[in-house]
Amino acid sequence: MENKTPRPQTFSGVVVKTAMTDTATVRVDRYVKHPKYKKYFVRSKKYLVHNPGNEAQVGDKVEIVGVKPISKLKRFAIKK
Questions:
Q1: HSE on the CB side for 30, CA within 13 Å?
Q2: Domain map of the chain by residue range?
Q3: What CATH code would you report for 10-78?
Q4: Which of 66, 74, 72, 80 is nearest to 22 (CA)?
Q5: Which end of the chain has fewer CB atoms < 10 Å from its terminal CB, N or C?
Q6: Contact 22, 51 (CB under 8 A)
Q7: Which is nearest to 78 in space by CA: 60, 6, 42?
Q8: Which pTM was predicted?
């Protein structure tokens, strides 16, 4: 039998804040269909991500990948 290792989560989003050292806030948007009205609309969620060396700046489009917990709220890192 094969051992299948799960792939880490990956999202793409936009950097909205870089005020903290080695941390950036990334907004990830997704399209959701309303169950009753069948109309699509945007839902967004913000993630705290590890930004080593403060390379990403506000407005950059980045890919983030799930990693082991870095701090209380940081579970993602910038993949580029």
A1: 9
A2: 10-78
A3: 2.40.50.140
A4: 74
A5: N
A6: yes
A7: 60
A8: 0.86
Longest CA–CA span in the chain (Å) reads 48
Type of residue numbered 30: R
Do you know the residue count of the chain?
Answer: 80
pLDDT in tens, 9-34: 999 999 999 999 999 999 999 999 99
What is the DSSP code (8-state) at residue 66?
E
In whole angstroms, give the CA distance from residue 37 to residue 35: 6
For residue 56, give the amino acid letter.
A
The amino acid that residue 65 corresponds to is V
Tokens 């945007």 locate to: 42
Give the integer Cα–Cα distance in Å for 28 and 7: 19
